[in-house]
Amino acid sequence: MTATSGRNLPGREVISNAMRGVVQIVALRQGFLGGMSPAWTGSGTIVHPSGLILTNCHVANPRAMGMSAPPADRLGIALTERSDQPPVLSYFAQVVAQSPEIDLAVLRIVAGVDGRQVSNLNLPYVPLGDSDDLELGDVLAILGYPGIGGDTITLTSGSVSGFSHEERLNVTRAWIKTDATISGGNSGGTAINGVGHLVGVPTQAAAGTGIQPVDARPVVDTNRDGQIDQRDTPMAIGGFINGLRPVNLASPLLQKAGLSTMRGASAALPPVQPAQPARTSPAPSPSAPAFRALVFSRDVTEDGRPIQPASLLPSGGTQLFASFEYSGLDSSMTFGEVWAWNGKTIAQKRGPWDAEASGRRTLSLMNQRGLPDGEYHLVLTLNNQVMAEGKAVIGMLAEDTDTQVSGQIVDAATNRGIANVLVLALKPGVRVQDFVRQQNKEQVVAKATTGNQGAFTFDRQLPKGQAYGLLVIARGYRDLAIDGALRITANAPEQAQLGPISLRRE
């Protein structure tokens, strides 16, 4: 590599050109009253002017990575127009190629935000570089979006500090180490060399790769079930990424998506008819092992399907069943299950996978003297890696009965917080229309008013195991009123964070 491309920090013009090819990827879910609200975000790089985007697989389709995240209804693409302004949501995209093994994916823009199909795009893009040319000490510039909604693009820089391999990958450079500061939200973003070519993708590395993992935990109620637990999508909450996936690893995915790759350029794509965007997420790769839809029940059908699955089960009984769907497995893999009761391991099994490659499997925990009340936690592993986990509560936990609920109210068009919004939680069994008609304050169990950023916290905790009606009132906006919208499960944490609630203007 020449000194021009490796040892010198990219100039202002190079960075400015690359910046316009960096996008924020916003996973959107259908929200209250039909509005769309963000579930998680990440970064990506446009690698062809027609709208081909390289990012992380866990950003585009976390379920393909084995994460227990509900599918996104849409993948929004927000373009960078100015460095001092938030990105602008402009398009919807679909996954066209993905590899959970290396945590990379390729998206294609297929529609505008109005839902109309797009073609003949001519977007700013970042040319592909050759990551094999990188040497120790080469300078890199990192671009991406570190936070959720409304944040501006960030630039950090550093040098190549080393390389790391993975035994399961037949490559010498599975990771590029760097001393650049890269926050978790930059996942899927852009690492360019001195001449502005894409050479790496900031990626959250797992333990054992030689890369320090980012501290990521479920901190947002992404699936909107009223609790923050392992069923929610992990968000980076501290620490930093210091690993890059070399862009050369993405060549097979880019070629599958129709892009012929070459050093320092992105060759022309053949014409592709855009597909109509759908409110579903692409299915996980059939070759990638995956566990999905883990549920608990007190009984199952003859073919092992759960009867009345629930996370809160009544006291009594001698059996607890856990059912899940799986795919991409074979007999060479080692399957494990670990059961815990109130944090104490009570049963565990480990051995070769002895079922079909795909299907449904049902496990059971039995105690002839009766299963005691408490929290039951099941962890499923494959080759010593956690693939899925879930919790069920038998009976009520007397020592943990209330949850403090917080959230944010945002404008549906701008996704910005709305101040001075009245938020009411109604007592269980109280219908919203009855409250509106009677205006009986005794029917309100908790209330809150939003601050300048639209954030709120109810003035009292909500007892668990109940569903509460929700009423949101804001001047200049349509009222939001939904019966049973706040469902606080029996095993909800002491504090729960609702995802952004969108209001539409009158």
Commentary on this structure:
By secondary structure, the protein is mainly beta. The chain is built from five helices and 35 strands. Strands 1-2-3-6-5-4 form a six-stranded antiparallel beta barrel. 47% of the residues are buried.
Concise structural overview:
The protein has 506 residues and is mainly beta. Helices cover 6% and strands 43% of the residues. It has helices at residues 3-6, 12-19, 57-60, 251-256, 432-438; strands at 22-30, 36-48, 52-55, 74-79, 88-99, 104-112, 139-144, 154-164, 175-182, 190-192, 198-202, 215-217, 235-238, 241-246, 261-262, 265-266, 290-297, 299-300, 306-307, 312-313, 319-327, 334-341, 344-352, 359-366, 374-382, 385-394, 402-411, 422-426, 444-449, 455-457, 462-463, 466-473, 480-488, 495-497, 501-503.
Strands ordered across the widest β-sheet: 1-2-3-6-5-4
Low-confidence stretches: 31-35, 206-220, 234-240, 262-286
Rg (C-alpha, Å): 24 Å
Query: Structural class of the helix and strand makeup?
Result: mainly beta
Helix content: under 10%
CATH architecture of the largest domain: Beta Barrel
* Number of strand elements: 35
Please summarize the sheet with the most strands: 6 strands, antiparallel, barrel
Distance between the termini: 59 Å
The total of helices stands at 5
Which oligomerization state do the chains in this entry correspond to?
single chain
Into how many domains do the coordinates divide? 3
Shape summary = globular
Q: Roughly what is the average pLDDT, rounded to an integer?
A: 78
